[in-house]
Amino acid sequence: MNGYGTLKTAIRALRLNVMRTMLTTLGIVIGVAAVITMAEIGNGASLAIQRTMASMGANTLVVIPGAANTSGINFGFGSVMTLTPQDANTIGTECPSVRSVAPIVRARTQLVFGNRNYAPTYLYGTTPSFLDIRDWTDMDSGEMFTEHDVRNVNKVCVIGQSIVRELFGGESPIGKEIRVRNVAFKVVGVLRSKGANMMGMDQDDILLAPWTTIKYRVVATSLSAANQSSTNTSNNNDVTSLNQLYPNLQQNLYPVASATEQADTPQPIRFTNVDQILTDARSAVQIPSAIREITILLRQNHHISPSDPDDFIVRDMTEITKAMTSTTELITKLLLCVALISLVVGGIGIMNIMLVSVTERTREIGLRMAVGAEPADILRQFLAEAVVLCLIGGNIGIILGRGASYIITSVLHWPTAASMGAIVVSVVVSASVGVIFGFYPAWKASRLDPIDALRYE
Amino acid sequence: MELIELRDIQKTYHLGEVDVPVLMGVSLNVLRGEFMALMGSSGSGKSTLMNIAGCLDRPSSGQYWLDGGEISMLNATERARLRNRMVGFVFQTFNLLPRTTALENVMMPLNYARDNLTEHQKRQRAVALLERVGLADRIDHLPSQLSGGQQQRVAIARALINRPQVLLADEPTGNLDSRTSEEILQMFRQLNSKDGITIILVTHDPGIAKAAGRTVYIKDGLIEKSSSIRSGT
User: Fold this and answer.
1) For residue B233, is it within any domain?
2) Least CB-packed of A63, A441, B57, B210 within 10 Å?
3) Which pLDDT band holds residue A266 (cuts at 50, 70, 90)?
4) CATH number for position B138
5) Domain count, chain B
């Protein structure tokens, strides 16, 4: 008996008892619908968790300058200033896995407003995309400064809630001017409160201004002045009140590079540098490719020969990412376990009914055997019935499951996400349930003795 | 020429620890084109003999040649193929598939046949057979809409669909009144004489057995006597 004939016989047998077929299918319908709904709710929950984690900075990559190394002495990360604003721009335009990029210039200084003063933890010069990367775009009041402000070196800033509390008390800071090292910055916006980060640092204790303004008007350090290893910074022991407010407390800890060494390792002359570059990958899975792309691009931009080490470091938030992926995996697995149990229950229902059906149709089986059906034909026929049952149930279940997740989204406002994988898995699983739970009854049918079966009452 | 040759067939059923011998060395030859009646009281072993002759069952010992081939040792699958090709069954209780039309009932054995007929050819063959048994206007009727005699005729058409060599009828008229019984017997006679199909008719009714060319009596698992061939073609 060919496959088409088997299928036709199976469908006819199922149509002979529509009510029972429907009730049997119900188990699988509910099972598959549960799998689909659970998978979609799980997917939605994963996405929501990913979004939350992303706002904690899970996808964030920080590019920091590498360590200077002179005469075998490592000066620690950040001791050379190799990153430029151009690096930030090219990362943004040429790395497809990078979503956005913001250069950062750090400063640590006092803020003054009226008769109050305060030194914030973070005083960053950056671009508007900083908030994008930190997932912080919704402002409490006012607006973020613009790219235009960055280009024009405008003296504007946005401040976090802690600074508002410290400097302004109750009043609105918008439009007021804060003095940062004697440069007056107009407050254009207040950031939403974000609280402490995972290390316990107050993230609201922040002032953001265009990096150009911080760089040229506030910090105003040149590349050479900050580079201990390449330039002789030790001989400014003479206290000049013009450029130094405090006596130089820095001890000369390291040997001064000789002229030969300086000639051997010339420092490229750059006009501007940034302290770090903040970027984020488009998604958690693209973090490795983003790191690779940034590394290749920066090595190329910095003219680093293949044998030399990187003059920068790309850091990712491995810990957060790991937590994120394990959490979402756990949720999806948990939901699937629950749903699979109902599928198994549905499968057992099918087995039950198939066993009843085999008993009920013993005479038919005997007759079919008498007219020449081989045991394999009988096995195939009952197996086909079980599989058809499960597939019908599976398809209805898919529709119901999709409908259920749609209703859940629209009524309960839970996030759900359609999952093609879940649909494919349910079809495969329901067919397998049919084969697994249909096999025993079918095998039992095929082992019947035609003589006994024909006589069965 | 012999179509069926049974030699010293024995069949013993094992019921727990007790062996129940049913056939105790039956030898029987059936010629091609013969119409034979097998008679015996209930428990005499006639059904067992028929099951063995119809390849539904395997003898415990002895040899069985069907159409020149020794088949007593075939396994279930091989016997199923042989039944499909060689043997048509007609049962006392008709055994039609319920809620399935006459036509589909007749076509059912073709599903298990090895010859690759198209759906159209199968249908044609089934319709021709239903016409042959006089049910041309009942093709799409369900068994429940047919009388006993009509149901038995559908069953005969079904038995003939694979053009078997031998037709085994187990009390085919047992559930029918005398008039329809006569019709059915008439049909058997016609199939035997016109189409040359070998027919073995199992019955306990001497009146019915008269329709056959030869009657074989079986008693307590042995062939008691065999009446002479009166009319065999």
Assistant:
1) no
2) B210
3) low
4) 3.40.50.300
5) 1
